[in-house]
Amino acid sequence: MKQAYPDMQIDFRVSDKSADMIGDNIDCVIRGDSAADLSMVARLLGTTSWTICATPGYLTALRLSPPLNYLSLRGRGKVTLI
Fold first, then answer.
1. Could you please report the per-residue DSSP string of 6-26?
2. How far apart are CA 60 and CA 21, in angstroms?
3. Which of 35, 36, 57 is nearest to 44 (CA)?
4. 8 A C-beta contact, residue 9 and residue 17
5. What is the rounded distance in angstroms from the CA atom of residue 16 to the CA atom of residue 81?
6. What CA–CA distance (Å, rounded) separates 80 from 82?
7. Separation CA 36–CA 18 (nearest Å)
């Protein structure tokens, strides 16, 4: 792509915080939720589903059992989204 568009620079960031597109000089974002700023143009790219996975040791330590949902993990320490 660099050869086809030598003047284009792509800076890829992943964050769980909303971006200040103007303040951070960002031209385009891909979000996992609806557009918070109605002044921005938004188009649906597609849909996805989420799966919650945990090791048996984690579930035993927290005295949880499947099926899990995100509410059952609230306040349970560090949870990593991949």
1. TT--------SS---TTTTT-
2. 42
3. 35
4. no
5. 10
6. 6
7. 9
